[in-house]
Design brief:
heterodimer, A: Beta Polymerase, domain 2, 6-stranded mixed beta sheet, 3-stranded antiparallel beta sheet, 44% helix, B: alpha/beta, 14 strands, Metallo-depent_PP-like (chain B), transmembrane helix (chain B)
Chain lengths: 313, 398
């Protein structure tokens, strides 16, 4: 082999070797030790954090769709579908009346707005109701109306209820923070703990993003989508909705929410102009109810047997 | 010649000498040359790969093609190649898209936008019929003007050019009469004076909503005894300015009477039946085909430009299928008496846009374009009349 070829071959071989030579972890290495130390320390810190008292203000009896929509203080068990619907329809009327009487600004949002879009009513499967307010209104609510109760009389005079306005002390924080207090205030039915979630919108970056309004859960809205608001009717009372309501809905729920007529066990009935439970859903629920009853019967029977046997002995 | 001489000298003893070398060259050397006088010169090279039968058939066919054409074979091939490439890359996909669009327009998707109950808003009239007495007759005309945007002088100029006679002729303003331009209040005054019909545009909508909000907050300055000729004013200037500073500035130009006029402008004006044009309707932006006027979403009627054919959701964006294209396509499928012709504005980018069942009239007067009128006479004849707008570059660029 000629010298030049030889040299080239050796160079290639050495380069290839250096490519392969990736560092392997060596526990004895001093640098590696510090890294593992650091990971250990981080873990420790995490453990400490978990031990720290929670900053959460509003408490629910549990998570998930079933329990996550009750206030812990007023919760006495999951209510029936009928009771929830009745509670919600009076609750939102009371809420809108109160804001109208106090000349405070509020509008309906999220799933509640979607319900309004379909037929001016709540979506029957919705576990909670959502409204929004501007941050100035939110602060006023905190200063003037926090912890006050509102006595409600339905327009036909048959229903009397009482609602608590509970404003989160963390409303001064307008960013998400630790994510424990993204709901700014609640309108709570003190009979069963069901509530309306009230979130405030603020221009969190008026310098870099003027005209962009955000809640603490990072739902963003442009001023031109929200204002000027439109006055409309919701559940039979005057309510406000954002100026460009379609865009707000499509941004949050995608176009499917405006065209899908089969959702959550319900079907859109064009003639009744309402969402109705599908027969399958009704059947399923009926079966579930029967199962529960049977189980309870069994329990009672078993208890009786146990009692009997103890008495006999 | 010395060489020859030498030969001649040597001639004497030639018999004893060997034959000259030149004589030894074989005689058939001439055979190596091919003469163009022979048939073989023109014969095809023997191709042993192709059977002779096929070769013969090939020759028979190619011999029939005139030589003049054969000569340009390469050019033809290139053209054919270009045609193929352009079909594959451009015309083919375009044709496919065209047919896809047609089929989307023809078939209503199983789940599509618009099955909801139309939202109801306070202080907004959805549909109103125009007074029949204003329909064009032998001696009177109906004049539609789009997007005046406060250009009062241009509107006056246009009416003058048309010889508009307020006793006979009737004016319909297709929304966005106000804002951007120099004299919004003047336009409304003029409209009231000549008893013009109007539709609610997105700017009237915004202004009226903003005023309703101010009223609900009690920050509107009450006029002495609610004088209808007093201009609008606000009690406090700074509080609650959600970007509506411009709207308030605009609102102050108007008197209560003029605001009243804006209030009665419907979102959809059912003009009535005109010979040859059929049922005439006027809106500011557009309509969704195959949907009753009462069920049209008012926001979209005042704002749409395109419709997504897959979901049938209208949008104010420019990209997509223009609503008027969809509208015209669907009208052709209807019985003649059910068809509807729409006169609208709002789409300045497209300018004057006249189709069989739609008349788009926004020619951007306020940004230095033209102000356009559609004149309909008693026989259903139509005429488009323009005036140039005063300010070079427009008013809204200030």
């Amino acid at each position: 082999m000629r010298l030049s070829t030889c040299a080239a071959a050796i160079t290639t071989a050495t380069l290839f070797a250096s490519c392969l030579a990736t560092p392997t972890p060596n526990p004895a290495d001093p640098i590696a030790r510090t890294i593992s130390d650091r990971i250990g320390r981080k873990k420790q810190q995490k453990g400490e954090k978990e031990k720290k008292p929670s900053t959460k203000y509003f408490h629910e009896p549990g998570g998930g769709n079933k329990l996550g929509h009750y206030d812990k203080r007023y919760y006495h068990g999951i209510v029936s579908d009928e009771e929830r619907q009745d509670t919600q329809s009076h609750m939102i009327r009371a809420y809108l009346n109160f804001f109208h009487e106090q000349e405070l600004d509020t509008w309906i949002a999220h799933g509640t707005l979607l319900g309004w879009w379909w037929n001016g009513q709540r979506l029957p499967w919705d576990y909670d109701l959502d409204t929004q307010v501007s941050d100035t209104t939110l602060h006023h609510l905190g200063e003037a109306h926090n912890q006050t109760r509102y006595a409600y009389n339905s327009s036909d005079g048959t229903v009397q209820r009482e609602y608590l306005i509970d404003v989160n002390p963390w409303i001064w924080e307008r960013e998400r923070g630790d994510g424990q207090n993204i709901i700014d205030a609640r309108w709570i039915d003190i009979r069963n703990g069901l509530f309306i979630d009230i979130t405030g919108l603020s221009e969190i970056h008026p310098d870099t993003h003027p005209g962009v309004w955000s809640c603490k859960n990072y739902h963003m809205y442009k001023t031109s989508e929200l204002y000027p608001m439109r006055e409309t009717m919701f559940e039979g009372v005057a309510a406000k909705v954002p100026y460009d309501y379609d865009k707000v809905l499509v941004d949050e729920y995608k176009v499917r929410a405006l065209i899908e007529t089969d959702f959550h066990g319900h079907r859109w009935d064009t003639e009744q102009r309402a969402w109705v439970k599908k027969p399958e859903t009704v059947e399923e629920e009926e079966q579930e109810r029967k199962k529960k009853e049977e189980e309870e019967k069994k329990k009672v029977a078993e208890e009786a047997r146990v009692n009997k046997s103890t008495r006999e002995s | 010649m010395t060489y020859d001489d030498q030969h001649d000298d040597a001639g004497a003893d030639a018999q004893h000498r060997p034959q000259p070398r030149i004589e030894r060259i074989p005689d058939y050397r001439d055979d190596l040359d091919v003469s163009d006088e022979e048939d073989g010169f023109y014969a095809r090279d023997d191709d042993f790969l192709i059977p002779p039968k096929v070769q013969a058939a090939f020759t028979r066919t190619t011999d029939r093609i005139p030589r003049r054409i054969k000569r340009y074979a390469v050019v033809y091939l290139a053209v054919a190649f270009l045609a193929l490439v352009s079909w594959l890359a451009y015309f083919g996909p375009r044709r496919a898209a065209y047919w896809a669009e047609i089929s989307l327009m023809d078939h209503t998707p199983a789940k599509s936008y618009g099955s909801n109950v139309r939202p109801e808003f306070n202080g907004m009239i959805q549909v109103r019929d125009m007074d029949e007495q204003h329909l064009p007759t032998k001696h009177s005309r109906l004049v539609f003007v789009g997007d005046v945007h406060g250009c009062r002088e241009e509107l006056e100029h246009l009416l003058k050019k048309l010889d508009f006679d307020r006793k006979h002729d009737h004016l319909v303003l297709t929304g966005d009469m106000i804002a951007k331009g120099p004299d919004s209040a003047g336009v409304i005054k003029l409209a009231q004076k000549i008893n013009a019909s109007c539709v609610r545009g997105n700017w009237e909508d915004k202004l009226l909503l903003s005023l309703a909000d101010a009223e609900a907050r009690h920050i509107l300055q009450p006029g002495p005894n609610e004088d209808p000729t007093a201009t609008i004013d606000f009690l406090d200037e700074v509080s609650h300015s959600h970007g509506d500073y411009e709207l308030r500035k605009l609102a102050k130009e108007f008197t209560r009477k003029e605001i009243e006029y804006l209030h009665q402008c419907p979102v959809i004006l059912r003009v009535g039946s005109v010979p040859t044009l059929g049922n005439l309707v006027s809106v500011h932006a557009g309509l969704v085909p195959d949907k009753p006027l009462e069920h049209q979403d008012p926001f979209h009627v005042m704002n749409m430009r395109t419709i997504d054919l897959k979901t049938r959701i209208p949008s104010s964006k420019h990209a997509g299928t223009p609503w008027e294209k969809f509208w015209n396509h669907r009208q052709r499928k209807l019985k003649p008496e059910e068809r509807m012709t729409v006169v609208y504005g709002h789409n300045r980018k497209k300018g004057l846009n006249v189709r069989e069942f739609t008349y788009g009239l926004d020619t951007g007067c306020v940004s230095g374009g033209k102000l356009t009128a559609l004149v309909v006479d008693g026989h259903g004849g139509t005429e488009i009349v323009h005036v140039k707008c005063g300010k070079e570059g427009g008013y809204d660029e200030e």
